[in-house]
Amino acid sequence: MREFILFSRGVTKEFKLNDLPNAGRMDLIARCISTAIFLSYSLRKDVKFHVVLNGPPSPPLTVTFFTNELKNVSPDERNIASHINIAIKNFGIGKKNSEPGIYIDKKSFEELVKEKIEEYGSNNIFYLHMDGEDIRNIEMKKDSVFILGDNKGIPKKEENFLLRNEIRKVSVGRIEYLTSQVIAIVNYEMDRRGL
Amino acid sequence: MREFILFSRGVTKEFKLNDLPNAGRMDLIARCISTAIFLSYSLRKDVKFHVVLNGPPSPPLTVTFFTNELKNVSPDERNIASHINIAIKNFGIGKKNSEPGIYIDKKSFEELVKEKIEEYGSNNIFYLHMDGEDIRNIEMKKDSVFILGDNKGIPKKEENFLLRNEIRKVSVGRIEYLTSQVIAIVNYEMDRRGL
After folding, report:
1. Is the pTM of this model over 0.90?
2. Where among B67, B89, B105 does a domain terminate?
3. Which is it for strands A144-149 and A168-171: parallel, antiparallel or unpaired?
4. Average pLDDT, whole number, for chain A?
5. Is A180 in contact with B175 (Cβ distance < 8 A)?
6. Interface pTM (ipTM) of the complex?
């Protein structure tokens, strides 16, 4: 499984689809998910994308898209965001899985990362950061987890948590790319290796 | 200058920002532009993105985004699309440059490519296609033009025109990526070479 974890400031309430940037950069979140899970006319197999929403009013919430089960999603930002909206809405009435392949739960970034450490081991989890080791020099397995921050990055506290748990910083270059661009590059580097 | 040319089915009239996919995949177009021109909190320098709109009612129209002049654009699809909408609207009353860095004209794909051949020479123009030569084996200069098709690709007639003009097919792998993902990868490969 290839997994992505995005630390975001996305809001934890329903939001307007006509103004995604003001919903804690829900546009960025949707773009990241789309980039991670889609190929031309198909979804990737065996990809899980987790976004941790840390915005108001009741953070954290973690929404997960699992490509092997997803139905009726399109790559445009508005469509992806609409599914997040549905998940948030239904979580309000206690539903954690109201659409195929989309899950939501009251789970923090650190709780989620801890789960993944138990599942994959720290050495298969990579924190994407401009100052990390060059991704082209890193050995990676098919089963890998990639952690990314939104436009504001991962806060110091959470970053220290990652480093304390021996999660390595990996870089795709000394350029500050959009998070969605980093995801496209990570998928590409994995694909190049046949993983 | 790094230039991109996207052959699209985008509509050539004003469209609804709430339904970009039904405007000739304006979502795809906006995503491609955003991916090509943005970095985190900044625009790339020296990038021109041309999208040829071949959709109804009055194709073709070519819209160009030039990063050195652009103002007030955001990376979300809706924002980029709104600027295309403004360009189309103002072209209706004869304006070819109603916002800084955004140009529109009645120009076809073949006319545009011919201009670029004169400007750069065929050997610095690359047609991104799954079946092309591996981009990692291709010598490229800082001044390069990349041609891409939308989700339906470049029609046979236009493709033959490219091949007749000795424009090489270049590939980023044997995977059918979204056009926006290909653009992220092309930028990354250029960046890696310091171009």
Report:
1. yes
2. B105
3. unpaired
4. 98
5. no
6. 0.97
